[in-house]
Amino acid sequence: MQHNIFTTMRSLKMMDGCKGTQVYALNPSGETTTNGFGGGGGVGEKFLQNLLSNSVRSRSNHDFRAIQSKDEVNSAVLAEALASYGLPKTDQLEPQIEFCLKPMNFVETLADVYCRMEGCAQFGKSRMYLEQCAIFRGLPDPKLFRKCLMSARLQAVDVHTKVVLSAWLRFERREDELIGVSAMDCCGRSMECPGSALVAGYNPESATDPCMCHRGEDTEIYVDEECSTSSSRGNEEEDFDMSFCIGVDEIRCRRFNIASLSRPFEVLLYGGFMDSRREKIIFSKNGISAKGMKAAEMFSRTKRVDSFNPDIVLELLSLANKFCCDEMKSVCDTYLASLVFDMDTAMLLLEYGLEENAYLLVAACLQVFLRELPNSMHNPNVSRLFCSSEGKDRLAYVGHASFLLYYFLSQAAMEDDLKSNTTVMLLERMGECASESWQKQLAFHQLGCVMLERKEYKDAQKWFEAAVEAGHVYSLVGIARSKYKRGHMYKAYKLMNSFISDYTPSGWMYQERSMYCQGKEKMMDLSTATELDPTLSYPYKYRAVSKAEENRLGPAISEINKILGFRISSDCLELRAWFLITLEDYEGALRDVRALLTLDPHYMMFHGKLQGEHLVELLSHNVQPCSQADCWMQLYDRWSSVDDIGSLAVVHHMLANDPGKSLLRFRQSLLLLRLNSHKAAMRSLREARNQATSEHERLVYEGWILYDTGYREEAIAKAEESISIQRSFEAFFLKAYVLSETTPDSESSLYVIQLLEEALRCPSDGLRKGQALSNLASVYVDVDKLDNAIDCYTNALNIKHTRAHQGLARVYHLKDQRKLAYDEMTKLIEKAKYNASAYEKRSEYGDREMAKSDLSMATKLDPLRTYPYRYKAAVLMDDHKEAEAIAELTKAISFKPDLQLLHLRAAFYDSMGDLTSAIRDCEAALCLDSSHADTLDLYQKVQQRAKDQLPT
After folding, report:
1. ∠794-800-804 over CA atoms, to 5°?
2. Which letter does DSSP use for residue 249 in this model?
3. Of 509, 563, 557, nearest to 534 (Cα)?
4. Of 364, 368, 393, nearest in space to 382 by CA
5. Which residue has the higher pLDDT, 42 or 643?
6. What is the CA angle 135-139-143, rounded to 5?
7. For residue 374, cis peptide bond before it (omega within 30 degrees of 0)
8. Range of weakest confidence among 1-5, 683-687, 733-737
9. 887 or 79: whose pLDDT is higher?
10. 480 near 501, Cβ under 8 Å?
11. What's residue 270's pLDDT?
12. What Cα–Cα distance (Å) separates residue 411 from each residue in 113, 260, 414, 664, 904?
């Protein structure tokens, strides 16, 4: 009904939008058209269709000989397809230049940010947390970024900052993908509530409280204006002592009340002007109607505008601006802002807000646009407002153009369409709004990266040079790449050679230099890159493709398996699938393509020429068809052998057979989380929520979304609401899981046990019950009920939950049965090949030499695991090899700045008497987690010792 309120306003003044000559819109399809090997287009689509139709025709031929030769025909089809697209070439591979801030010394940068945060004035903390966000954006754990974003919102003071950060938090959860959720819906949390964002003031405690707003969507908010201006007059008409004449209308007023509206009115009515002595004042040429002046008279008495039509309030806003009526402007601004609830209303009112300098009204309109991202940027007027310099200037005049705003807009645009003109212009506006050094570094570096992707190499080099001048040394990599793309390979090599000489060498430096050399020198650089940073994927990919070019496909697959063993990515899965197709291992190739499409449903295979789903269709003709029951059996087998990639592929197949199955989407999300693919996991979880067929099931998935984005109490509330509707395994499991993470005391542990027992009484399949039994056993261990834990772990193993071996080994260890513990972990290793965590855990139960061997294997399989580095460093310290111990930790910290690693190195420095280094590492660790008790304790002790050593 509110939409009808604005019908009269449209005749008053239609919004023309921000002026401009050209509109740049984002790609509406949102589909990815490139892959890790570059290239694009759909050149191979018709060719593939011909191949498929030929294959189908061969299958429909009922001649016995044709049936016999089906495998040969399909193999020939795949061979022809592979020949058409061509195997990957080493010269098509390039390492990705990171889009984020990348300090040369990450630990020192973290320590500096922490110190400045501690010394920052309270009202400046939100800005500091934003800088922290930019630094954490490059880390693999997205929770660190979201945590900083939430902290920035908690510390926000002004409305503009609250509006942008609230919308950004919502964008991180992608609530726009949830069916039935409107952009302006209140989610129940003050931190993201659209109403709370429009309230200025500093109150970080209230931001974590449940939201108290109650937005009435169906309530009329005005009455007839004739009634509104006369209903409260009564006997007060006799007090009117003057009139404003507008045309033939005469509006009776109290002189004192009107004069109190502003200083100009006071001068007009009580100053030395002729009007101050007149009873009737001609007011026809001031741009306000008789109805508007009646409303102004009523406001002078009531100080309210909520009984007027919105078009009348807009007149009052204009009058307030002309005559400096601050109170009336504020009330009108607040009221109009409360009416903004959708895109149509926001588009209609924005121009009024900009022209009348109505800060709150513009904020409310911006809030709608930001909470509708990325779709709102497809509106030409919205795109023009944000992208053009004039639009930015108009926003700045009202107080709504900031680096924060354009930082958010540009990140959303890059996710939607990296190469679009919209992305470029938003980054340009972001650079124009940048005032601090880190802001300029980020804006210019990202502009360079986008220009490089657009193949505008001269402009890319210009922006990278600007970023370096602003202090972002890493952008030298972009300069080298731009020079290389422009044909100056030797200049690029010299630049990276000088880079390595001038700074502490890192793996990515050698990786980049390898781009500009050949032969043995190139391979040496790649080897050094892997040695310094074993997590870089480009060296593995290059070595694998190089071996494939030599027709050594077995070693090529072994090489790519090294990186896939600890980091799953679409480009590496595509490479392995490519090799497997060449070897005619179609089942393995199909597994990898299905897993790949789980990570990225729109992935384009074969140099960006072929949709992944089409390749699945082609490969499926060459493998044994599976029913849904067969798939369940396969899933149990994959789960039992801890084969997460295989499990992903099976779930993808099951979803192809039953696409509306929310439970399968949920399982898919759990697998993706185990593989640290957080973005894909959240997408699967949102799809599970959308496909849920019952309210209680939907609430569970919403609870997991909330938990994974940092809202634990709200997640528990969703679980409880689900249980109140219907008792289910997943609802009890969710509540138990979140509680065990939130309140790890003995009393809550007993409650968690009750919840998990309730979960196990509810229907579910063996995969989930095995997980619940394992979790229940873990809680039993925490409360020292070891025999109960053994029973649970044994029951979990009986239903093929192989990971229960690890928990059972822990119990045996606590019962001082180390041999049994070691043997239990050996069973896990035998069942789950190449499981780095199993080797790491078994190291705790063997002697020193056996432990060293297991930890060496764990590091080889997964260099991201930190325990092996900490153990080796501790052993070296015990042997009084302090420098080697520090070097061991430093090597790991260089590519994984982990809290535990930093804490341990700080402790080592402290024991060696190097207090300055110890303080730095403590500060860096606290930047990652300011509440880490052990590090806080160490930090205070080291600081005290440093003070004691100062000369008196």
Report:
1. 50
2. E
3. 563
4. 368
5. 643
6. 95
7. yes
8. 1-5
9. 887
10. no
11. 85
12. 22, 48, 5, 31, 35
C-alpha–C-alpha distance, residues 331 and 326, integer Å: 9
Please tell me the distance from the alpha carbon of residue 50 to that of residue 28, in angstroms, as a whole number: 29
CB 921 within 8 A of CB 895: no
Choice between 794 and 610, residue whose per-residue pLDDT is larger: 794
Q: What is the mean pLDDT of residues 370-391?
A: 94
Residue type, 918: A
Please name the residue that has the structure tokens 């000088």. 498
Which pLDDT band holds residue 209 (cuts at 50, 70, 90)?
Answer: low
Verdict on whether the full-model pTM lies above 0.70: yes
Q: Tokens 């078994």 belong to which residue?
A: 842
pLDDT of 15 strictly over 70: no
Give residue 746's pLDDT. 77
* Residue 935 pLDDT: 96
Q: Could you tell me the two tokens for 310?
A: 């919105």
196 to each of 13, 160, 210, how far by Cα in Å?
A: 30, 12, 11
Q: How far apart are CA 100 and CA 134, in angstroms?
A: 7
Cα dist from 39 to 91, 448, 607, 609, 888, whole Å: 13, 20, 5, 8, 41
Q: Please give the C-alpha separations between residue 308 and each of 5, 413, 944, in angstroms, as whole numbers.
A: 11, 39, 65
Cα→Cα distances 516→94, 450, 477, 874, Å: 11, 21, 12, 40
User: Environment class of residue 22 by beta-carbon count within 10 Å: exposed (0-12), middle (13-18) or buried (19+)?
Assistant: exposed
8 A C-beta contact, residue 276 and residue 266: no
449: left (phi over 0), alpha (psi -120 to 50) or beta: alpha
**Nearest-angstrom CA–CA distance, 654 and 665:** 10
Assign 657 a pLDDT band (cuts: 50, 70, 90).
Answer: confident
Q: Can you give the pLDDT at residue 275?
A: 64
